[in-house]
Structures are given as structure tokens and as C-alpha cells.
Amino acid sequence: MTAQPLLRETSTPTTAGAAQGLGDENSIWFKLTALTRAETDNPMTILMQMAERYGPVIPVNMANQRIVILTEPEDFKHVLVTKADSYVKYFDGLKPIFGKSMITNDGALWQKIRMPQQPAFHPDMFAEYIPYFNAAIRSKMEIWADYARTGETFEMVEQTWTLAADMICKALFDRDMPFNPHFVFKCVKIYTDVMNHKEIRLKRQAGELFEVTDEDAAKAVEAWWSVPPAVIGADPREQRERTLLKLIEAAVKDPKFPEFDEQQAIDEIKQYLWAGTETTALTLAWSLYEVSRNPEAADRIRREGEEVVGDREPTAADYSALAYTRAVIQETMRLYPPVWGLIRVASEPDVIGGKEIHPGDRVVIFAYGAHHNARFWEDPEAFRPERWMGGAAKKQVKYSYLPFGGGKRSCIGGAMSQVENTLALSQLLRRFRPEYVGPVPAGINATVTLTPKGGLMFKMHELS
Ligand code: HEM
């Protein structure tokens, strides 16, 4: 398979009225900043207050665009499951990041693209991936040992993001990361920080510009596009046959599947390197923030690791037995769902909760709101991993917890990310005591994902 020209996408036509960049005035991400920026420490609060005041279905008109915010689990199910075909994926402004990858498609083509890749995410594959997850965790430990020696303060999401990328490259692509992850992910952040695009938007409004020419954003996108060809071109670590990359390459060679061309392969890799890393990384970083503030949880994770794994390398059976550590990851995703809102576009008229939905309406499934609603969660702001232990989780209201979305478009890598994060949290805490040294509570920034405002600053201590 050969690499494609990297700058091809600048000339991709967009549908009328669709946003080219995240900061475009037509982009829902930009419009939502008007609602979510009002409260500085937690922009979700204003949406929570709206839900309390205006009920479960909240239509908002913003710059000639109707946005409908949903806050009830039964309405989430309606959009994601019952009438899934009437609500299509919304990806305006994310094209430079995702290209034409599966996550952006709908209907029969989406199904055709997902099908050949699905086997790589079957739980039976996790046992094969775990040695590579472990290898990535060991490399991260060496970096943390240096931080512990120097006493330096560092930002945690950058650390967990590079760990998640290393895991994906090693386990799913059979490659050592053939790019500088710190540089690449800084580039992604420049692109996805919606407010950064203000300048571009203003120039465009003045009729001066149409294409994204802001230097930083353009350079960031260019750096991002250089990554998939680097992955494809790098030497395999072990020539493994059962990897996601092999499945993607086989799909490209399949004459019965002409739509799955080389650009499709490149875009699938882009998709995994963002959707499969940032979300995983945010979860692990927020979980370290929570356990740093709850030392008894950190001690329990260490004890569980000692009892279950001891001095061996963790295996798939160990993952199943690390029940408390896994519960910490689940509770972290409840408090800080990386995808705080799932967006769809209505393709036909509908009625939800007695309110009319018009074709073209942007529908926001406010997952964060359900995760923090006292009707579904006792003491919702408290960090309580025990909610996920034993039979407790069975009492939860369906669709009140959807870190991985729901219905047929739910996350392909959700179960795998829980393996990655449970093993990482368990192993890293066995050797280290990460100390969160930033403001409490940490501020939240919400654009496409829910990120810590200004990052999560830590110092590292190595346990004797
Ligand atoms: C904590 C970790 C993760 C979270 C919170 C997360 C969250 C999500 C959510 C909410 C969706 C659905 C979005 C929607 O319906 O609009 C999604 C889709 C997706 N995720 Fe994840 N994800 C995680 C990890 C991963 C991993 C590890 C991978 C792969 C390596 C991955 C790959 C994907 C892909 C390809 C889709 C699109 C599926 C489709 O459209 O059929 N994700 N993810």
C-alpha cells in the first residue's frame, strides 16, 4: 500500500451551509461555546441548569440554526436506537481530523466499512493485545521514574495521550510509534480548540477568506496528515498477522469492496489515532486526578494489584479480576465523560417529548447531564467506585450512562479501552504515587471532548 498525497483534503468540497472548521460560525461546536463558556470552572453547569429549568427537550435557536438539547435517557434511546436511521452523524469541521473514516459515515456504507474492522475489537483479541499494552506501560514507567528523580511538574493528559497512542500502535498496528506523539497531539489540540479559530472566522465573515489559512491550524492539520503514511511505512515490530492494520490492508485489496480504497485506509488510521487515544487518555488522566485526591482509593487499587497480579505481567484473566480498579475507570467516565455530548442531525420530521423536530435540526444528546443527574445517581458529584461493584450496577437506569454512546453507532473500542486503562492504572500505581498539584477542583473545558482547563499538573513520587 502506498501513501497518498497529504494535502488533498484542502480542496474537498463541503455541503452548503456546513462548517469547514470547528471554529466556523456554522459549526455546532462553535455555537455551543456561547452556552458553555458562561461558567468558567465548569461550562457544563449552564446546560445542567437549562435542563432543570426547561425540561427534557430544549430547542435553542442560534444564528438561524435550531439546536435541540436532550437530557432524558429514554430520549437518548429514541435517537440512538429506536429511530437511529432518522438521525445521522454530525461531523462538520472535523473532516481534516477524520477524513472519510467510518466514524463520519452513515447507512450501508458505514456498515460496509465497519464490518471488516470489527474482528480486531472482539474481546477474544484482548489477550493477544495485553503484552503490547504492558510494554507501553513499562516504557511510560521509565519516563515517570525520571520525573520522580527530578521532581519536575508535568501535565498528565500529554503523558496519558502518548501512552494511549503507544498502546494502539503496538497492539493494533504492530508498530513502534513512528512519530513524535507530543508534537502530533499538540497539533490536534491546536485544531480542536474551537476558540483558537476565532480569527479565521472573523476574516471569513469579512469576505477575506474562504479556506482555513490560519497558520497554526493549517500547520497542525498538515502535521496530522503526515502520521498515517508514517504508520503504514514503518517497519512492523513482529510481522503479526492478526492486527487491525492487516484487516484494513486486506479490505483495500478486496476487489469486491472498491469503496475501501487507500485513502479510506489512511483515514481509518487517523480515526483510530484520535478517537482511540484522546478519549482513553482523558479517562486515565482524570482517574489519576481522582485517586490522587482519594488516597484510600489509590491504596485499594495497589492492594488489588498485589493480590491479583503479584509480580507477574498482567493477563486477560487478571483484567477480569481487577474489579475495583475497573470500577474506578467506570466511575471516572461517569464524572468526566470524554464525549460529553453526542451530536446528530435529524433527517426527517419527528416528535420527541411532545416537541417537534425538524429535518436539519442539530440534536445534542447531553450525556454529561444524565451522568450527573441526582435522579439516576445518588450523590452524583461524589467519586464512588463502589457504585460499579457487585450487583449495584444492575439497578442503574438504562441509557443514564453512555460514555461509549449507544445503539449501533456505539464505540468500537470501548471495551478495549477499559482493558488498557484498568491495566495502566493498576500497574502505574503499584510503582508510583502521582500527586496532583493543580487547582481544586480542576477546571473543565468543553468542546468536542471534555478536557481539563489548562491541563492536569502533577508531580511524581516513586514508591520504595
Ligand atoms: C475511554 C475511551 C473511549 C471513549 C470514552 C469513547 C467514546 C466514544 C463514543 C461516545 C463514540 C460514539 C460517538 C457517537 O455516537 O456520536 C465512539 C465511537 C467510536 N470510537 Fe470510541 N471511545 C473510546 C475509546 C476508543 C478506542 C480505544 C477506539 C479504537 C482504538 C475507539 C474508536 C472509535 C470509533 C472507530 C468510533 C466510531 C464507531 C462508528 O461510528 O461505528 N474509541 N467512541
Which characteristics define this entry?
alpha+beta; 5-stranded mixed beta sheet; disordered N terminus; binds protoporphyrin IX containing FE; globular; 12 strands; Cytochrome p450
Structure description:
The chain has 464 residues and is an alpha+beta fold. The chain has one domain: Cytochrome p450, CATH 1.10.630. It is built from 19 helices and twelve strands. The strands form four sheets. Strands 1-2-8-5-3 form a five-stranded mixed beta sheet, sandwiched between helices. Strands 4-12-9 form a three-stranded antiparallel beta sheet. A two-stranded antiparallel sheet has the order 6-7. Helix 12 (244-253) runs antiparallel to helix 13 (262-275). The structure holds protoporphyrin IX containing FE. Residues 102-103, 114, 168, 271-272, 275-276, 279-280, 283, 338-339, 342, 403-405, 409-414, 416-417 line the site of protoporphyrin IX containing FE.
The CATH class, by name, is Mainly Alpha
Average pLDDT rating: 88
The radius of gyration computed from the alpha-carbon positions, rounded to a whole number of angstroms, is 22 Å
Strand order of the largest sheet: 1-2-8-5-3
Q: What is the H level of CATH, i.e. the homologous superfamily?
A: Cytochrome P450
Number of helices: 19
Q: Any ligands, ions or cofactors bound here, and which?
A: protoporphyrin IX containing FE
Shape designation:
globular
Strand content: 5-15%
Distance between the termini: 49 Å
Work out the number of β strands: 12
Number of domains: 1
Largest sheet properties: 5 strands, mixed
Helix content: 40-55%
Kindly identify the CATH topology. Cytochrome p450
Uncertain segments: 1-17, 195-213
Structural class: alpha+beta
CATH architecture: Orthogonal Bundle
